[in-house]
């Protein structure tokens, strides 16, 4: 009997972190070039949180629910970045940590909830996060 897959934080290494940061730098510089450094920082962190959430749940890449949930997370982050007036102040890295951590908790909770509600057991159609009942 196949063991159901579970979210894994094993992919979150320094190398993976560097790759995520380097891949998001073009987004940051594009938004900053458009004239809003505060919004650039918000877009950078929001995209990073969604990517890290995808990395944690990457074992479910064949599940349509991962892509639905990630799409919803992106669609929810876009208005947050565009509609909230982000300040141009310079914050130390630790000043943004609580907000980023809260955002990650929300993204992780939504992804986890999707798989609890809609996921299928591994071995049926695709893979998903679901606990065995017995």
Describe what this molecule looks like in 3D:
This protein is an all-alpha fold and 134 residues long. The protein has one domain. The protein is 64% helix and 0% strand. The chain contains 4 helices and no strands. The chain has helices at residues 14-33, 37-56, 64-83, 93-118. Helix 2 packs antiparallel against helix 3 (64-83). The relative contact order is 0.18. Residues 122-134 have low confidence and may be disordered.
List keywords for this structure.
single chain; 134 residues; 64% helix; disordered C terminus
Quick synopsis:
This protein has 134 residues and is mainly α.
The largest β sheet comes out as: none
Work out the helix count: 4
Find the structural class using helix and strand composition: mainly alpha
Shape: globular
Compute the separation of the termini in Å: 12 Å
Q: Indicate the proportion of strand residues.
A: under 5%
Radius of gyration computed on alpha carbons: 17 Å
Mean pLDDT across every amino acid position: 81
Indicate how many domains the architecture comprises.
1
How many runs of DSSP E, i.e. beta strands?
Answer: 0
Helicity, in percent?
Answer: 55-70%
Unreliable runs, pLDDT <50, ≥5 residues? 122-134
Strand/helix succession: HHHH
């Amino acid at each position: 009997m196949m063991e159901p897959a579970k979210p894994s934080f094993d992919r979150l290494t320094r190398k993976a972190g560097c790759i995520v940061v380097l891949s998001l730098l073009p987004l940051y510089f594009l938004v900053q070039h458009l004239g809003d450094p505060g919004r650039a920082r918000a877009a950078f962190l929001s995209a990073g949180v969604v990517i890290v959430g995808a990395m944690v749940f990457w074992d479910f890449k064949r599940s349509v629910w991962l892509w639905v949930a990630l799409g919803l997370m992106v669609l929810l982050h876009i208005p947050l970045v565009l509609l909230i007036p982000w300040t141009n102040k310079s914050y130390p890295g630790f000043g943004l940590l609580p907000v980023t951590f809260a955002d990650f908790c929300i993204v992780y909770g939504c992804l986890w909830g999707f798989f609890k509600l809609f996921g299928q057991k591994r071995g049926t159609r695709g893979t998903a996060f679901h606990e065995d009942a017995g």
